[in-house]
């Protein structure tokens, strides 16, 4: 079959690769001039089944409420005159019970484990390089009370087969001596030894090259303007460069997936959640961290990438703008310098803000759509890097009418 994949971000390119493996002809359409120029450009870099907790939790509504008057909350709600935003926010709040959080976390953890295995398989098959790093990830806490509660909550992940170890302050620093400068801020931590990290943008670009070598037609600078239906199926994709016939289409447009879906008469519960990142030189630090991790009480993630250090924080429910200014990163950089020292960023800081395509559950939508030959692989939120390769394999299974390699429980389209 000839499959047209909409979007050349990480999700679109991994989907194209799995379809090519299955013997399909693949065309990928991307409005930017290169792959991974939007959500996948400068994300956290953590491949983190050990951090697969649902964002919708009993603590989230309080953070959203406090964010209306304080700017230091990990989850911020900036109200807009937008029915789309309010509909999504109300659906998100319904997921913020202990019962729903536990159920969504279980599904998410299983998906993340499967997806990491698929990532490892793809890397073994292709040899792509992306500043990948194994050796686990650390999740540490500044207060003994939060650490104790987190140790108990980690049973949700252990129940799904993940290894999560409890570490004292000294054990955290022994695991990564690069955290010695953060000793005073660490009460204890959790260590997921099979977690990993790497640069999602480098991975996506390298895999796009592999896909081209396998025969994929990747068309950059090409904007999708609509889909032509006939007899209940998609017959062609309309673009700024003309019409492209298709036997099947995969929707991988992230935060813009709902806009195209609405032109076809159905809705998707995907809304942008803005995240902020900075990339600095690891050489500026007296001792840089050697593996990635998260300062959990500030939801500040850090990730070594070769000679760079990527820092990410904040989830802002504020619409579709990616605009930012240096002052927007002040809280993040203050917290980071508490951990890694005042030299952080001394030789320069690369600022970035991107839009995570979030569903209320925090789980992606990987399924058939209401239209026979239109497939959905979208809504991966803040863990798209971790979940993308598994979701790509599931999508290829759906298109090939195969038994799913991994269940799409919790990820099915629900109109």
Structural summary, described in words:
This is D-amino acid dehydrogenase. Its EC number is 1.4.99.-. InterPro entries: FAD-dep_OxRdtase, FAD/NAD-bd_sf. Keywords: Oxidoreductase. Belongs to the DadA oxidoreductase family. The protein has eleven helices and 20 strands. A hairpin with a 4-residue loop joins strand 15 and strand 16. Helix content is 31%, strand content 25%. The protein has helices at 10-21, 60-66, 83-94, 98-126, 144-153, 155-158, 169-175, 200-213, 257-263, 330-340, 384-399; strands spanning 2-6, 25-29, 46-47, 75-77, 137-141, 165-168, 188-192, 196-197, 217-219, 224-230, 233-239, 242-245, 248-251, 271-281, 293-295, 300-305, 308-317, 350-358, 365-368, 374-378. It is globular, with a radius of gyration of 21 Å. Strands 4, 5, 6, 7, 14, 15, 16, 17 and 18 form a nine-stranded mixed sheet that branches. Helix 4 (98-126) crosses helix 11 (384-399). The protein has two domains: 2-40 and 202-266 and 362-399, FAD/NAD(P)-binding domain (3-Layer(bba) Sandwich), CATH 3.50.50.60; 47-196 and 271-358, 2-Layer Sandwich (D-Amino Acid Oxidase, Chain A, domain 2). With 415 residues, it is of the alpha/beta class.
């Amino acid at each position: 079959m000839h499959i047209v994949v909409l979007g050349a971000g990480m999700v679109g390119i991994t989907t194209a690769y799995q379809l090519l493996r299955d013997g399909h002809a693949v065309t990928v359409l991307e409005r930017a001039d290169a792959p991974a120029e939007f959500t996948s450009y400068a994300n956290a870099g953590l491949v983190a089944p050990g951090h697969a907790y649902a964002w919708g939790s009993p603590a989230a509504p309080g953070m959203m409420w406090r964010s209306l008057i304080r700017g230091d909350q990990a989850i911020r709600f900036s109200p807009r005159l937008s029915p789309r935003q309010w509909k999504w926010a109300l659906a998100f709040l319904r997921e913020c019970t202990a019962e729903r959080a536990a159920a969504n976390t279980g599904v998410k953890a299983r998906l993340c484990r499967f997806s990491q295995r698929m990532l490892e398989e793809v890397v073994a098959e292709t040899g792509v390089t992306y500043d990948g790093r194994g050796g686990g990830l650390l999740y540490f806490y500044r207060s003994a009370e939060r650490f104790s509660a987190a140790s108990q909550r980690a049973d949700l992940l252990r129940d799904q087969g993940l290894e999560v170890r409890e570490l004292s302050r000294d054990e955290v620093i022994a695991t990564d001596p690069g955290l010695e400068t953060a000793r005073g801020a660490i009460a204890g931590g959790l260590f997921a030894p099979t977690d990993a990290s790497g640069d999602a943008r480098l991975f996506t670009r390298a895999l796009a090259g592999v896909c081209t070598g396998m025969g994929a037609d990747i068309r950059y600078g090409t904007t999708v303007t609509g889909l032509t239906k006939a007899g209940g199926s998609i017959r062609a994709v309309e673009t700024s460069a003309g019409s492209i016939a298709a036997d099947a289409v995969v929707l991988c447009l992230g935060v813009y997936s709902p806009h195209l879906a609405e032109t076809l008469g159905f809705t998707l519960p995907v809304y942008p959640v803005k995240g902020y990142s900075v990339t600095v030189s690891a050489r500026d630090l007296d001792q840089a961290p050697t593996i990635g991790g998260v300062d959990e009480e500030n939801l500040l993630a850090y990730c070594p990438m070769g000679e760079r250090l990527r820092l990410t924080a904040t989830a802002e429910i504020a619409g579709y703008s990616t605009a930012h200014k240096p002052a927007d990163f002040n809280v993040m950089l203050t917290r980071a310098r508490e951990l890694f020292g005042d030299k952080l960023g001394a030789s320069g800081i690369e600022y970035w803000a991107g839009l995570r395509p979030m569903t209320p559950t925090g789980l992606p939508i990987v399924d058939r759509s209401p239209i026979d030959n239109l497939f959905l692989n979208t809504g991966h939120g803040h863990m798209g890097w971790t979940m993308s390769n598994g979701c790509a394999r599931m999508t290829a299974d759906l298109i090939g009418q195969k038994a799913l390699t991994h269940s799409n429980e919790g990820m099915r389209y629900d109109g």
